[in-house]
């Protein structure tokens, strides 16, 4: 039998994991319950975060950062218009997750803790320069998104740590575009591209591009991005970044597509994502 | 009282709509019996292996386990629609990964599944053949060593692993190709597609005190279930009572046996009711799927566009058991000419055993695969000659008086009207939505014919004491609405409304024989039997009324609303009065019946040569033309069908809304076949037996406009002129989409599904 625990506060949740080190954490349950039903997980205890009210909701802070509570469902994130400018990348990605039932059940904390590289948030959070706030028995800490997604289904979370919030830095003058290539709508991406672009009188003043679903974790090349800052994002420059990104991928052959195709299609998706984000950024100026 | 209207031609709501909308309809998984046990199956981990022994002791030791059966508990009895090569369970050796090797009955499903995993089987692995090419190689291991001795229901041509080889030809192909101004040639490949009934297969069996077995199962024919269970277990048919709950769709997967024999075997062994419902993964791995085809095809024409010759060679992966494969092979060759006048056609095909799950019947029955190849070649020739592809099809469309390939007379042919209708409704040639930055738009057309017919059927109509009627046919309504359509036919023939007729649930004890809900046949074939039985009842009603009215039977007639009238007078008798008279005074209760078998020959030996064709009398012809508007994302190569126009000649739409439902459903399933669905094997193991990894189109993926256009060229002997619509709209889809992709991007795809990867690769190669 599985022990089912429902703490009311983060502190209680942390205590649950101290008492039951083998327990699995459940947020929305969209993935964990499916795995338990399929016999792929059989934890002795499940700690549900569902009754922890402080983990739900999206709140802008005075300094322009936005905090998304770990138990905020995808549906809420996808509809949050205050996620604007560069922060909109997270809203756009949330809107492409699976289907309405999953967007109602699933939460940002649960999704990123599972760390499926083909999921929608990892690339979006890396492009957003998000920070992941986690709490464990040793207290709290913030982890840069780029460092959070470590490997296939592996994060920087220590045992007993839970995601309490995702923090997005301000990027009010930037704009975002999210490209997701799927076999059928709602499926895991064959490849995803999250782009954030800020333009200043025709010159690129900020550029962040992350590629998902093409290896163990999102790929972002800050140095190559910086080559484009100050330039006009001409086609050649974008193509150079796009092809470097493609070279940095570690895609697999799977039932969705071949690794060759992923390398071939990603630069094309990157170019379109940058063009779309740029058009949005310039349209908003 | 509102005036009576003819019941045929009305979009009457389905007769079982209330129980389905309210969730009261009971499917196999909803059924339960007192003291019922639950079954689970152990599947083979090997593609090909000899079974050396079993150890069931650990499974039997699990509390709640009541029975374990392995291949050692079965004697060799074989079933098979064409070649009797299949037992209820693996005996002696396993032939594919996922094949049932043992079954368990336990108090609950969880215990049964856990116990099944504890059964130990000792295997000696054998070399496997995983593709038809491997299976045909010299010295290849044989999947069935005893093929030669198996019972076959037709004159099968076989050799090695090739268990059925068929030739079909007409005219002088070599001479005709020499006269062609343009010849196109190519090879095409199609994939395995999963039926994806929302309801996985399942069955429930119970043995009564007299030793008789009562069986409910997800099925397309209670009679095929009865035949397969009895053949594979060696039971007399009188010992098995096969029934049906509501069925959550069947596309060919539930026509022949799935796990019914195993569930019956368990129930007989434990003498308690046993239910087994397959998981989605098991349903993927052990039921059946659409045949992968390899097709080499050549088509030639004169420079005025007149088609002269076609040559087709197909190679089918049959999987581990013959199942419906010989039929699919033969039918695909019969359809490979397409609905055109091509006087010289030669087709040859083989279907080969491999160590994969069996491939069998699936909506389209081989027609969609050959149409994908043949209909692209019609387009290629049109483009070479500068002829509009739709015009090319109209010029070569079979004329109304022409026979089908092989020589069968065609008695109704609405092909030209279908082509004209889709041309008009789609605005063909006007390019309503041009390509735009990032998106290439193209239009494609394809045409086809498909049969409805095959084999035996019967109907009984009984008049009840109050003048209403019970209709029994034995045809399982698999959700498409055949109970409604048959009720409409019966009611209309008796001039009463549908609420005066009840359609009985199929049941081998109570229903007359029906081969099955398959081959697009229920409306046409069973409908004919229903109309005949209703006519028989009408005749008896008139005879009884004439006796009551003391007048010659020739003076009375059936009148709208359920009355007998005397010709030329206002004198009427309600049916209730006639029913009372026959039940209580004279003549006895009225029972009408009609039995028939489809009997028009497929082959005219004066025109055609057929060798190894497994059927001789196939059915009547429906026709279809389809136009699709495709958008291709230039960045990714992803092709999407935005709009579709499908015209189908159905003879007569008994229920237009249900006809439209069939057209739409076929298009959506055809789009999955064309664009996204593909069963992938990793060695001998199916790599994507889940809906997570096997992607069928969902609501967001289907076209925002599917225009269903009903064309009615009545079939002379069809009920009210009707012919079938169950499969035909799927057949043209891959070809029409491929032709639209060519129109948009200038590339020809020869392999299904046409994934973003294949389209982009072709586009980049063409640049």
Q: Quick gist of this model?
A:
The complex is a heterodimer of chains A (285) and B (767). With 285 residues, chain A is of the alpha+beta class.
3D structure, described in words:
The complex is a heterodimer of chains A (285) and B (767). Chain A has 285 residues and is α+β, with helices and mostly antiparallel strands. Among the domains of chain A are: 1-47, Uridine Diphospho-n-acetylenolpyruvylglucosamine Reductase, domain 2, CATH 3.30.43; 174-283, CO dehydrogenase flavoprotein, C-terminal domain (Enolase-like, domain 1, 2-Layer Sandwich), CATH 3.30.390. Helices cover 35% and strands 24% of the residues of chain A. Chain A is built from eleven helices and 13 strands. In chain A, helix 4 runs antiparallel to helix 7 (121-127), helix 9 runs antiparallel to helix 10 and helix 10 crosses helix 11. The radius of gyration of chain A is 19 Å and the shape is globular. The N and C termini of chain A lie far apart (58 Å). The model of chain A has no long low-confidence stretch (mean pLDDT 96). Chain B is of the alpha+beta class. Chain B has three domains: 17-24 and 455-597, Aldehyde oxidase/xanthine dehydrogenase, molybdopterin binding domain (Aldehyde Oxidoreductase, domain 4, 2-Layer Sandwich), CATH 3.30.365.10; 31-126 and 201-277, Aldehyde Oxidoreductase, domain 3 (Alpha-Beta Complex), CATH 3.90.1170; 293-453 and 602-766, Aldehyde Oxidoreductase, domain 4 (2-Layer Sandwich), CATH 3.30.365.10. Helices cover 27% and strands 25% of the residues of chain B. Chain B is built from 19 helices and 29 strands. The chains are: A alpha+beta (285), B alpha+beta (767). Chains A and B meet through helix 11 of A and helix 19 of B.
């Amino acid at each position: 039998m599985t022990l089912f625990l429902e703490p009311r506060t983060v502190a209680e949740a942390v205590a649950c994991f101290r008492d039951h080190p083998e327990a699995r954490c459940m947020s929305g349950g969209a993935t964990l319950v499916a795995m338990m039903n399929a016999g792929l997980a059989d934890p002795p205890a499940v700690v549900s975060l569902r009754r922890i009210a402080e983990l739900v909701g999206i709140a802008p802070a005075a300094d322009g950062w936005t905090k998304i509570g770990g138990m905020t469902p995808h549906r809420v994130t996808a509809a949050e218009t205050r996620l604007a400018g560069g922060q909109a990348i997270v809203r756009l990605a949330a809107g492409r997750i699976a289907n309405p039932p999953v967007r109602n059940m699933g939460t940002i904390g649960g999704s990123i803790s599972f760390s499926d590289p083909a999921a929608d948030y990892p690339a979006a959070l890396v492009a957003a320069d998000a920070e992941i706030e986690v709490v464990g028995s040793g207290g709290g800490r913030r982890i840069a998104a780029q460092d959070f997604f470590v490997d296939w289904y592996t994060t920087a979370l220590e045992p007993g740590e839970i995601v309490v919030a995702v923090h997005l830095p301000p990027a009010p003058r930037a704009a975002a575009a999210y490209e997701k290539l799927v076999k059928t709508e709602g499926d895991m991406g064959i490849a995803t591209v999250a782009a954030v672009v800020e333009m200043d009188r025709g010159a690129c003043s900020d550029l962040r591009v992350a590629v998902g679903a093409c290896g163990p974790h999102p790929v972002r090349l800050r140095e190559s991005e910086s080559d484009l800052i100050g330039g006009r994002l001409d086609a050649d420059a974008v193509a150079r970044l796009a092809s470097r990104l493609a070279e940095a991928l570690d895609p697999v052959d799977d039932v969705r597509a071949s690794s060759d195709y992923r390398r071939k299609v990603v630069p094309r998706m990157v170019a379109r994502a940058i063009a779309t984000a740029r058009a949005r950024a310039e349209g908003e100026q | 009282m509102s005036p009576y209207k003819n019941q045929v031609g009305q979009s009457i709501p389905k007769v079982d709509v209330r129980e389905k909308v309210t969730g009261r309809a009971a499917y196999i998984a909803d059924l339960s019996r007192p003291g019922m046990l639950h079954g689970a199956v152990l599947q083979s981990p090997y593609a090909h292996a000899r079974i050396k022994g079993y150890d069931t002791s650990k499974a039997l030791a699990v509390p709640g386990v009541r029975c374990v059966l392995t291949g050692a508990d079965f004697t060799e009895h074989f079933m098979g629609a064409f070649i009797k090569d299949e037992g209820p369970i693996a005996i002696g050796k396993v032939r594919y990964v996922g094949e049932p090797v043992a079954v368990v009955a336990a108090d609950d499903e969880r215990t049964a599944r856990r116990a099944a995993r504890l059964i130990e089987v000792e295997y000696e692995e054998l070399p496997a053949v995983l593709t038809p090419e491997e299976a045909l190689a010299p010295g290849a291991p044989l999947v069935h060593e005893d093929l030669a001795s198996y019972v076959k229901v037709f004159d099968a041509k076989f050799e090695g692993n090739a268990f059925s080889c068929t030739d079909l030809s007409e005219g002088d192909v070599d001479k005709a190709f020499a006269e062609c101004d343009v010849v196109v040639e190519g090879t095409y490949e199609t994939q395995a597609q999963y039926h994806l009934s929302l309801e996985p297969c399942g069955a429930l069996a119970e043995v009564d005190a007299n030793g008789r077995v009562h069986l409910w199962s997800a099925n397309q024919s209670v009679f095929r279930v009865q035949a397969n269970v009895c053949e594979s277990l060696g039971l007399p048919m009188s010992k098995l009572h096969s029934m049906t709950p509501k069925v959550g769709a069947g596309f060919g997967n539930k026509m022949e046996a799935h796990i019914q024999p195993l569930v019956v075997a368990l129930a007989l062994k434990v003498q308690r009711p046993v239910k087994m419902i397959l998981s989605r993964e098991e349903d993927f791995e052990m039921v059946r799927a659409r045949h992968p085809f390899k097709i080499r095809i050549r088509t030639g024409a004169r420079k005025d566009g007149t088609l002269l010759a076609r040559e087709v060679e197909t190679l089918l992966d049959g999987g581990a058991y013959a199942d419906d494969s010989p039929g699919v092979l033969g039918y695909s060759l019969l359809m490979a000419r397409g609905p055109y006048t091509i006087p010289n056609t030669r087709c040859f095909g083989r279907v080969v055993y491999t160590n994969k799950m069996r491939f069998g019947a699936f909506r389209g029955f081989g027609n969609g695969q050959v149409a994908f190849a043949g209909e692209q070649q019609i387009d290629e020739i049109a483009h070479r000659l500068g002829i509009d592809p739709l015009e090319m099809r109209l010029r070569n469309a079979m004329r109304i008086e022409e026979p089908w390939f092989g020589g069968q007379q065609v008695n109704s042919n609405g092909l030209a009207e279908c082509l004209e209708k889709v041309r008009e409704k789609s605005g063909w040639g006007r390019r309503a939505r041009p390509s735009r930055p990032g998106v290439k738009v193209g239009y494609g057309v394809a045409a086809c014919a498909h049969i409805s017919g095959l084999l035996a059927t019967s109907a009984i109509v009984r008049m009840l004491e109050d003048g209403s009627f019970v209709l029994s046919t034995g045809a399982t309504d698999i959700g498409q609405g055949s109970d409604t359509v048959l009720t409409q036919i019966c009611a209309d023939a008796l001039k009463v409304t549908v609420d005066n007729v009840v359609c009985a649930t199929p049941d081998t004890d109570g229903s007359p024989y029906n081969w099955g809900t398959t081959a697009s046949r229920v409306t046409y074939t069973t409908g004919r039997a229903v109309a005949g039985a209703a006519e028989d009842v009408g005749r008896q009603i008139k005879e009884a009324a004439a006796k009551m009215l003391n007048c010659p039977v020739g003076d009375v007639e059936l009148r709208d609303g359920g009355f007998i009238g005397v010709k030329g007078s206002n004198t009427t008798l309600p049916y209730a009065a006639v029913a009372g008279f026959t039940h209580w005074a004279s003549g006895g209760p009225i029972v009408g019946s009609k039995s028939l078998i489809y009997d028009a020959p497929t082959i005219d030996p004066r025109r055609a040569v057929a060798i190894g064709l497994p059927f001789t009398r196939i059915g009547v012809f429906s026709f279809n033309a389809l136009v699709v508007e495709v958008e291709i994302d230039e960045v990714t190569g992803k092709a999407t069908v935005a709009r579709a126009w499908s015209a189908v000649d159905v003879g007569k739409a008994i229920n237009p809304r249900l006809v439209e439902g069939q057209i739409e459903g076929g298009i959506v399933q055809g789009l999955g076949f064309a664009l996204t669905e593909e069963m992938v094997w990793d060695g001998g193991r199916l790599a994507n037996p889940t809906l997570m990894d096997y992607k069928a189109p969902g609501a967001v993926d289907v076209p925002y406009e599917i225009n269903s256009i009903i064309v009615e060229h009545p079939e002379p002997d069809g009920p009210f002129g009707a012919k079938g619509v169950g499969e035909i709209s799927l057949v043209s889809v891959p070809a029409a989409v491929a032709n639209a992709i060519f129109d948009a991007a200038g590339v020809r795809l020869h392999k299904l599904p046409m994934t973003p990867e294949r389209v982009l690769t072709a586009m980049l190669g063409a640049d």
